C-alpha cells in the first residue's frame, strides 16, 4: 500500500493538487494523509520568519472555520472524487511548524511521496509565494511532487530527468524514478544542460552509461541543452518533447528554484508541468 502525504491550506491551489494526486495514483491502492497545519500554538518559536511563513500557509483568508471541520469536508470531497475503492483518506491536524509536522508524519507513516501545490512568484510577492514548498523540498528527505497552480492531469507519456551526470545515481533515487515511469508506462527523456563545447568527463560518461543500462527495458533517450538560457531551453524542450513531468535530484534544486519560484516578471518560463523532486 502506497502512502501519500498532502499538506492543505484549503485553497483552490491545494484542491488542484489533491485532484492531481487522485488522478495520478488512480489505479493503485493508496493511503492518503491530508495534513493541515495551524500556527496558533507555535508562535512561540524563535524564528519569526518561519512563523510568518506558516501563518500565511495555514491562517490565510481561506480558513474561515474550525480546521478540523474543514479537514472532514476535505476528506468527504476526496472520497467523492476518487473512483478507487482502495483509496483511503485520513485527516491530520498539527499546531507546529510546517516542516516539523511533515517530518513527523513522513517518519511515523512511512510516507512514500509528499505532494504539494505551489504558485509562481509575482512582482509584489517575490519571496513568500512558494516558500512553504521550497522549505519542504530542501529540508525533508522524502520525494516531493510539486504541482503548479495551473497543472491539469493528463496521461503521463514523457518524463524528463534533468541531470548534470555528476552524481552517482543511488538506489533510492533511481528506484523512485523507475517507479514513476512504470506507474504511468512513460518514456524517460534524460536532459543534460552543459556549457558550450564542454565534453563529459570520464565519471559523467560512466553515470550516463549507468542510466542507459538501468533503463534498458524502458523507452528512453538522451538530450542536451548547450549555451542557452536555462528557463527558455527547458521550456522549448518541454514543448518539443511533450513533457508531462520533470524529475530532478534534490542536489540540483537551483534549477527548481529558478523555474518554480523565480518572480514571473523576471522569467520567461511559465510551467504547468509538475516536478518530481528526488532525494539521495
TrEMBL record:
InterPro entries referenced in this protein's UniProt entry, alphabetically:
Universal_stress_UspA, UspA
Q: Where does the record place the UspA domain?
A: 2-148
* Listed PANTHER family: IMP2'P (PTHR46100), USPA DOMAIN-CONTAINING PROTEIN (PTHR46100:SF4)
Task: Name the protein family.
Answer: Belongs to the universal stress protein A family.
**Protein name per Swiss-Prot or TrEMBL:** Universal stress protein
